[in-house]
Amino acid sequence: MNSFPIVRIVSKILIPYIVLFGLYVQFHGDFGPGGGFQAGVILASALILYGLVFGLPAAKAVAPPWLVEKFIALGVLVYAGTGVATMLLGGNFLDYDVLEHHFLTEITVGGQTLHMLPSGQHLGIFLVEVGVGITVTAVMLMIFYCFAGRETASE
Amino acid sequence: MIEHHLPILLIAIPLMAAPCCVLIHSRRLTQLLALLVCWLCFGISVWLMTKVMHEGAVTYNLGGWEAPYGIVYVVDYLSAFVMLFVSALAAIVLTYSPTSVQAEIPESKQYLFYATYLLCLTGLLGICITGDLFNVFVFLEISSLSTYALISLGRTRRAPLAAFQYLIMGTIGATFILIGIGLLYQMTGTLNMADMAEQLEAVRAVDGETWAGSRTMLVAFAFMTVGLSIKMAVFPLHSWLPNAYTYAPSVVTCFIAATATKVSVYVFIRVVYEIFTPTFAFNILPLDSALMAFSLIGIFVASLAAIYQTNIKRLLAYSSIAQIGYMLLGISMANTAGLTAGIVHMFNHALIKGGLFMVVGCLILRLGSAKLEDLRGAGKTMPWTSFAWVLGGLGLIGVPLTAGFVSKWLLLTAAIDSQHWWVATLMLLSSLLALVYVWRVVETLYFAEPSERAAAAKEAPPLMLVTTYLVVGASIVFGIWTEFSAGVAFETAQHLLGVTQ
């Protein structure tokens, strides 16, 4: 579809905003609707759009399949690793309370107290969702590669 | 301190090792890692089993959230027992596997095989350990999805097709289970199994003995029973199993044949006995008669089908369907003796069928075929492998001094105790069918002119033989020393039926 100027230009304009929106859904997921899964799908859709418009080789140059495969695994490790970290800090598996850090949790600006950095529960869910986001992005992309190209992922 | 965390480590270690396999990528290292993790899981299971036997149930609150609000892991007699043999077989089969994997799975995919194997183990152990019904579904999906992937690794082009067939059936089953869980959740507002049972008990108590009925409970029960029956491969819903077992790589067949359906039986026992209670399932609803009828028909149809198979893997697959029938037969009797027989048969059959599929793996490695005609006369060139078949086969028939005899004896006494004379008779008759299909293979191995392949074959590698004999030997040991297996099963059955000594 590289030969259609409108498609090419519009997707070039849109892709950064899709990525931005994906990041918003990821990191605002604990305040509003969203979260790792949704963000992962949105992020992957940016790359898939890129692949559809500029061709599979171009997409694979940005995100090579072997790297995508590693990211699938990495996300799971981030999730489970959070659990292990909470265990090492003396809590149960995924007990976010022990992640309480008391570091810059609130800041006073002009007499108003603002909550700045996340507390334990908050940080825990944040880390876990990052893991989910990474894996979902990578899996969505890998599914696209598998269906779009003849080569299998491991080659 | 680490003791406290062991229930979660049993799940977290294989879960984390699986992505590590993908990251490491190297064939040798992933193999080592997987092996290490499997034996570690076995060690933890043994520890949990002894702990449960001495101190009673172990619980672990995930994320520090108390039950029934959070997810809680519960290790009691039943779950510890199932986890023990699942992790034991996972470890032994993986020790047995390297040569067979090398021969049957492309080198570029082997690291994925180990990763998926570990995920499957995670799922199976997770189903057993969790006390949260939705968690059961999640782990069921983890184990099922990885099983589909493992089956599709088979050498022939039929393997992906068999995996797809299983995928369709398995997904229907999983969806049914999920619908059931959803309805129960909507009704009780809880997902914790113990809490759910209490809430349902309250619903039942209002209506008294003549249960007039919450229709939601009835529908949930129906969906869950049918869904689990697909997963267990109970007779009319077994169609996915023969192809899946036949076309999967040998090692995968060993593992899933020994563990996957038994874990589904475990879930079935939990759901029927703990959540819905036997009164609801067997007295108010006639699940016992239905289960008994389907089990018996299944035993006969599947055993007869096994007799006519020309592929030894398919033969064993049909035999597995028949053996599931024996387990359910025991469970359907709803008395301590029957339930003991059902539970002990899960354990014994895991050993027997695991061992027999390991023998088949050895034969396929050396003969390159699982067809009976190619197996002719292999007893001369592969004496040890063939003898292992004889030992395992005796267990399958239920000859005294083998594990199969223990479960059949218990089942028989249970049937006679509860006056099911015709069940007892049919059971004995069905053993003759097992004799026929086991003997057919024995005859082919020992008393036929060697085929070209068999004449050229040599004995299976020592490691594979040793591990095969370990499992087959265990099935003999547990046929003589029944204190542990039958003892634990008896304890479990009493607990499930609420009998106090």
Following the backbone from N to C, one meets helices and strands of chain B in this order, namely HHEEHHHHHHHHHHHHHHHHHHHHH
Helix % of chain B is over 70%
For the biggest sheet of chain A, the summary is:
2 strands, antiparallel
Residues in helices of chain A, as a percent range? 55-70%
Number of discrete helical segments of chain A: 5
On the 0 to 100 scale, the average pLDDT of chain B is 90
Percent range for β-strand residues of chain B: under 5%
Whole-number mean pLDDT of chain A: 86
User: What is the beta-strand fraction of chain A?
Assistant: 5-15%
How many structural domains can be distinguished in the coordinates of chain A?
Answer: 1
Q: How far is the first residue's CA from the last residue's CA of chain B?
A: 34 Å
Give the overall shape of chain A, derived from the CA principal axes: flat
Strand order of the largest sheet of chain B: 1-2
Main sheet characteristics of chain B? 2 strands, antiparallel
Structural class of chain A: mainly alpha
**Number of distinct beta strands of chain B:** 2
Calculate the terminal CA-CA distance of chain A, rounded to whole Å: 26 Å
Oligomer: heterodimer
Describe the structure.
The complex is a heterodimer of chains A (155) and B (501). Chain A is built from 5 helices and 2 strands. Chain A is mainly alpha-helical. In chain A, strand 1 and strand 2 form a beta hairpin. Chain A is flat. The mean pLDDT of chain A is 86. Chain B has a domain of 194 residues. With 501 residues, chain B is mostly helical. Chain B is 80% helix and 2% strand.
